Amino acid sequence: xxxxxxxxxxxxxxxxxxxxxxxxxxxxxxxxxxxxxxxxxxxxxxxxxxxxxxxxxxxxxxxxxxxxxxxxxxxxxxxxxxxxxxxxxxxxxxxxxxxxxxxxxxxxxxxxxxxxxxxxxxxxxxxxxxxxxxxxxxxxxxxxxxxxxxxxxxxxxxxxxxxxxxxxxxxxxxxxxxxxxxxxxxxxxxxxxxxxxxxxxxxxxxxxxxxxxxxxxxxxxxxxxxxxxxxxxxxxxxxxxxxxxxxxxxxxxxxxxxxxxxxxxxxxxxxxxxxxxxxxxxxxxxxxxxxxxxxxxxxxxxxxxxxxxxxxxxxxxxxxxxxxxxxxxxxxxxxxxxxxxxxxxxxxxxxxxxxxxxxxxxxxxxxxxxxxxxxxxxxxxxxxxxxxxxxxxxxxxxxxxxxxxxxxxxxxxxxxxxxxxxxxxxxxxxxxxxxxxxxxxxxxxxxxxxxxxxxxxxxxxxxxxxxxxxxxxxxxxxxxxxxxxxxxxxxxxx
Length: 494
Known about the structure:
Blueprint (H helix, E strand, L loop, with lengths): L1 H15 L2 H17 L3 H4 L1 H7 L14 H12 L6 H10 L2 H26 L2 E2 L5 E2 L2 H12 L1 H21 L4 H19 L4 E4 L3 E4 H18 L3 H28 L5 H12 L9 H20 L6 H5 L7 H33 L8 H12 L5 H34 L5 H16 L6 H24 L1 H13 L8 E2 L4 E2 L3
Antiparallel strand pairs: 1-2, 3-4, 5-6
Helix pairs in contact: 1-20, 2-7, 2-14, 2-20, 4-16, 5-12, 5-16, 5-18, 6-14, 6-17, 7-13, 7-14, 7-16, 8-9, 8-20, 9-18, 9-20, 10-11, 10-18, 11-18, 11-19, 12-16, 12-18, 13-16, 16-17, 18-19
């Protein structure tokens, strides 16, 4: 019976994350890029400058634009940047990296639009805290034209968002990645590890048990403090972890600079199936496209609707200000960090093709060992382990925040369910290393994909609002988000 249930879930997962959703997200990115006249390219320099500008922190909100971006990046930059890229290349070949780049460049327009709308439709609650995200975009934006449909989309998004946080992306998968990374390093450094028998669960190494306890404690200390503490921790850890990993990857690439052009050539040839056997070019291209775009979307979350929840708390007085900053998250996640991983793996494959039979963390680890033969393997494993731990830890924090805001929306502001959820979340973090039921992972994957559907629909319906806000901001008119009804094109009375 369980096998049948798993097969049904896997079929649903394959459909949800199949070509229809990938094409929907990709086409939305193309549509918004055209409608916004390439805002992600034309305004990228301005966006990068705006990240640290104090001029964006003068409006209503709870966080600075930088902290709001870091909170979103804490959930976005995760195991996908190390493990996900390796999986895409292992399954789709070097060409998958090209399609990850394309998904990111188009996804920047999507991220800009969804975060802009989150600011525009956010609400300030009685106690002064800000709540916003696709649920309000759907309810207030889409709902202004289609009331019942808008509310339905909002509720569906909030339900899926809550399930994603608790059932896998925020907890089980991240905790498993952390404990596996620590255990792999411990084995490399110390050899065989002592096992501990846990009743009803089985035998696990001491490293796994101790690390799961420590991790649960640290997560509890952060998330019980709420958004301000999560954003503060994210504002410190996210830049540090990104710098550590990028510097390490740049060093590895610099030591192999003569192979970089060969790697880029392999990426472009693989993207269009030029190296495939006769008659197999189209098939190879489709596989590279599917794996690259799917992993790219999964990594940078453009279109899924998660980042707008964090963006809505930013202290800005115009929606475009945070939209323009938020789109840099996709740039940093995929164009910078994923590219470092991807190029390192492709070079490793060119130098030592036999590592092609590996996947995930093992492929990334082996590739860096090929690129840095003079560096002791234990040192490479340690750096990657630290990066993986920090990436996954911040993802745990970010997804707790997203889920809490979804629950707050569903409960109509009642914070009791939110407090109960926090403790359930902490328990799920502790239990993460011992969860081996494949159905849990599949359900998490399904609801993660389903989040995107209400969000994408709202972007397409409200594209006129997005364009009008953008024109307003960059034309210098500055009709601010509060006090203007873009659905009916009129100024609201005081």
